[in-house]
């Protein structure tokens, strides 16, 4: 399974990278989806949520690309195994506060990736993250991660086992305003298999 998840993630990240590199050419959320999905069997319904739409983690509609954070959640099924990757880009010019918010979430993301080890408790990793969030905890409105296998949302073990594949996907959402999420796939005992830059990509928009 691990070789299959690595290949699925490699293909997913290659397509996501190509999408972000040409993001300025897209006008609508649907155009982004169509570019990502072309030629692949999907693991789930692709999410492209820009501007205020990004505040909804389960946004599945299609509208024009709006200024602000844009959450892109995309995964494929390769040889029966699912990948699941999320990146957030910024359309327009972010304020310093927005840059700081993204940088904060990215630091937390790296911290949690380092905590994914054999026998670690996913519940503890999430609980510790929520505690560190303090008054921002109300902005984190879903679970920290899930298992990956032949289905995209598999159950995680209470104590992580060697070779188990999970996601780590912290997010922050301000209802009706903005959303940010960063998601990577991890093989327990081997590390992150989604080889894609997590730095905030800024997309110019007139």
Produce the secondary structure layout.
Elements: H1 2-21, H2 29-37, E1 47-50, E2 68-74, E3 77-78, E4 81-82, E5 85-91, H3 96-115, H4 122-133, E6 165-168, E7 171-174, E8 178-181, E9 184-187, E10 191-192, E11 201-203
Parallel strand pairs: 5-11
Antiparallel strand pairs: 1-2, 2-5, 3-4, 6-9, 7-8, 9-10
Summarize the structure.
This protein is an alpha+beta fold. The chain has 4 helices and 11 strands; from the N terminus they run ααβββββααββββββ. The chain has one domain: Creatinase/methionine aminopeptidase superfamily (Creatine Amidinohydrolase).
What does this structure look like?
This protein has 206 residues and is an alpha+beta fold. It has one domain: Creatine Amidinohydrolase, CATH 3.90.230. The chain has four helices and eleven strands, in the order ααβββββααββββββ. The strands form four sheets. Strands 1-2-5-11 form a four-stranded mixed sheet, with helices on one face. The longest helix has 20 residues.
């Amino acid at each position: 399974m691990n070789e299959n998840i690595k290949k699925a993630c490699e293909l997913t990240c290659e397509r996501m990278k190509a999408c972000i590199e040409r993001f300025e050419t897209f006008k609508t959320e649907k155009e982004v989806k169509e570019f990502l999905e072309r030629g692949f069997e999907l693991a789930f319904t692709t999410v492209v949520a820009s501007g205020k739409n990004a505040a909804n983690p389960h946004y599945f509609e299609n509208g024009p690309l709006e200024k602000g954070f844009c959450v892109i959640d995309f995964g494929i099924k390769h040889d029966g195994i699912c990948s699941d990757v999320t990146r957030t880009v910024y359309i327009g010019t972010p304020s310093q506060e927005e840059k700081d918010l993204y940088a904060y979430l990215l630091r937390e993301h790296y911290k949690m990736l380092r905590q994914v080890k054999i026998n670690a408790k996913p519940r503890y990793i999430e609980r510790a993250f929520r505690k560190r969030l303090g008054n921002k905890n109300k902005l984190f409105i879903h679970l920290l991660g899930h298992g990956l296998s032949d289905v995209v949302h598999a159950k995680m073990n209470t104590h992580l086992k060697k070779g188990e594949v999970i996601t780590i996907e912290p997010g922050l959402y301000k209802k009706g305003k903005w959303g940010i999420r960063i998601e990577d796939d991890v093989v327990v005992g081997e590390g992150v298999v989604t080889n894609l830059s997590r730095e905030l990509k800024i997309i110019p928009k007139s």
